[in-house]
Amino acid sequence: MRIVIADDHRIVRDGIRWMLVNEPSIEIVGEAGDGQSLLALLDEIEADVVLLDVRMPDMTGLDTLDRIIERGHEVAVMMLTMYDEPELVSAAVERGAHGYLLKNADRAELIRAIHTVGEGGSFLQSELTGSLLRRLAQGPDVETLPDLSAAERRILQFVAGGRGNREIAAELEITEPAVKAALQRIFKKLRVGGRSEAVAVGMRLGLID
């Protein structure tokens, strides 16, 4: 898994590198201290996952996330931050982050999160789930939401379990493009912007066991 670390504090970048240096399944291919440097780096290299701090100078992590999506970079973005405010978690998920992890996570959880989002899944640190669900409590009216088909519910269940598109395709014996198309239909029906938000809304509506 090829990753980029984006944080304005060198000591934090060094700490993350130290945690991952002996993990053979992960390769750190770049570092950036601000949003503009990260965008320039992503134009030059290929990466699977970006670990992105929420609050950075000049361009915030959320604004940088917007730019990454606008530019069409095929990279999973996981917010890695010390801030656990529900508003920030909700905003990150709504704007397309694949995961949200606090900097107090241990090495095993960090590695698991990187692999989950890098393989097309979503990752939300367990202690943040409750705050996100409460934040979404005033979301779409249940009665106005179209029903998901049995197949779509099954795919949403797989997503909630951290399965990536490739794993879902293999499990259901369909192609990855078919999984992506189904996910887009699910997002549209649930009126959400991405996987993490779909899981949160699905949990609130009882669509996920």
How would you state the average pLDDT, rounded? 84
Rg for CA atoms: 17 Å
CATH superfamily of the largest domain: Response regulator
Number of helices in the DSSP assignment:
10
Structural class: alpha/beta
Question: What summary fits the major beta sheet?
Answer: 6 strands, parallel
CATH class of the largest domain: Alpha Beta
The CATH level-2 architecture of the largest domain is identified as 3-Layer(aba) Sandwich
What is the CATH topology of the largest domain?
A: Rossmann fold
Number of domains: 2
Question: How much helicity do the residues have?
Answer: 40-55%
Which percent band covers the strand fraction? 5-15%
Walk me through this protein's architecture.
The chain folds into 2 domains: 2-134, Rossmann fold (3-Layer(aba) Sandwich); 140-204, Orthogonal Bundle (Arc Repressor Mutant, subunit A), CATH 1.10.10. It has 10 helices and 6 strands; from the N terminus they run βαβαβαβαβαβααααα. It has helices at residues 10-20, 35-44, 61-70, 86-94, 107-118, 126-135, 150-160, 165-172, 176-190, 195-204; strands at residues 2-6, 27-32, 49-52, 76-81, 99-102, 123-124. It has a 6-stranded parallel sheet, sandwiched between helices. Helix 3 links the parallel strand 3 and strand 4.
